[in-house]
Amino acid sequence: MRVPVYVLDRHIHLSKLDSEKLFWKWYVFGKEKEFTQPWEYFATEKLKIQWPKWEIWDVKIILPFRKNTQVEICESDNEILWTDTKITSSWKLEYAESITIIWPKWSIYLPHGVIIESPHIHMSVAQSEDFWFRNNQIVNVKTHWNNEQIIENVKIRVNDKFEFDFHINAELGNKYWLRTNDWVEILD
To answer: What does pTM read for this prediction?
Structure first.
């Protein structure tokens, strides 16, 4: 079964409360472009992340708001930021590293807010039923470039709102020679 690929660079998901701290209560974000999931989009605004002494500018924001603010980086960003961030599933923030998010005049500190998102597949409930997959199932996927590499431990996420796609961060995408609009094959 083939799945379209979407390669993600570092980005931030903001909660409404943290958005109000950085911007203001009635701030209206610009819309740069649609994201792969139909209700999500990239804002035109970009933020700076910092910890402890180093920083990365122009980090994209994906909206709409989520329950918790979460920063997603790549492995090499650990060296820039001097963190020891681990690969984990989204929203597993109890062991996440700390980070500061900065907008020109304001900043917020997250004691547990930065992760390296593990590769995962989004699919709708109907698709999961059609192909006998379940939410949180772990599968392996195969690339079709550079000697067909296997990417292990890919989590399936099922939700009625999801569109079918495979998300991988930019660094892992480069490792496996994947680009947005390529495809991988689910093996399990």
So the answer is: 0.90
- CA torsion sign for 8, 32, 3, 132 is positive
In whole angstroms, give the CA distance from residue 19 to residue 133: 35
Closest C-alpha among 77, 40, 39 to residue 58? 77
Report how far Cα 7 is from the mean position of its chain's Cα atoms. Answer: 9
Are the C-beta atoms of residues 105 and 99 closer than 8 Å to each other?
no
The structure tokens 């650990």 sit at 78
| Alpha-carbon distances of 93 from 3, 116, 141, 153, rounded to whole Å | 28, 11, 26, 19
pLDDT digits (tens, 9 = 90+) for 52-103: 879 999 999 999 999 999 999 999 998 888 888 888 877 778 888 999 999 9
Give the integer Cα–Cα distance in Å for 87 and 167: 14
